[in-house]
Amino acid sequence: MNNELIEHKSWWKRNWKWFVPVSGIVLIILSVFIFSRIGGIGADLAQAYSDTELYQDALEKAKSEQKVIDLLGEIEPIDKLAILEGEVLYTNNNQTVNSTIRITGTKGKARMDITADKIENQWKYKRINVRIKNPPEQKQTIEIVTAE
């Protein structure tokens, strides 16, 4: 019988050949994400996702416009996915927003463009436009709110 001890290689000696390149690639991807606008876009979407008051108030203003009701029918509430699918850009230390989200009615679909400033924790709308895209024969832009 052989009583020699079997020496096992350390984890590092067994795995360094794949660990080093994978770590380098992960660091490069993280640095690109952090130092590019991609990180800002993610932060803007997270802010928009949590700021439902901005979209709900704008939607109520759009629902009060008779021309929008005539073309889109009854407008459905804005769901969280519509916010994530849209475009959003916060500026001025998150006190100004430019955003576009989809809205859906019983007769068609549209995009709602919003520009607003947050003044004393209330959103003051500079612009709300509803761009009708479906049905195609009704394609047009309806101004709900314009800068004063």
Topology:
Layout: H1 11-35, H2 37-50, H3 52-63, H4 66-72, H5 80-85, E1 87-91, E2 96-104, E3 109-119, E4 122-134, E5 140-145
Helix pairs in contact: 1-2
What's this entry about, in short?
The protein is built from 5 helices and 5 strands.
Could you explain how this protein is built, in words?
The structure is a single chain. By secondary structure, this protein is an alpha+beta fold. Helix content is 43%, strand content 30%. It has 5 helices and 5 strands; from the N terminus they run αααααβββββ. It has helices spanning 11-35, 37-50, 52-63, 66-72, 80-85, and strands at residues 87-91, 96-104, 109-119, 122-134, 140-145. Strand 1 (87-91) and strand 2 form a beta hairpin. Helix 1 packs across helix 2 (37-50). The longest helix is centred in the N-terminal third of the chain and has 25 residues, at 11-35. 18% of the residues are buried. The model has no long low-confidence stretch (mean pLDDT 83).
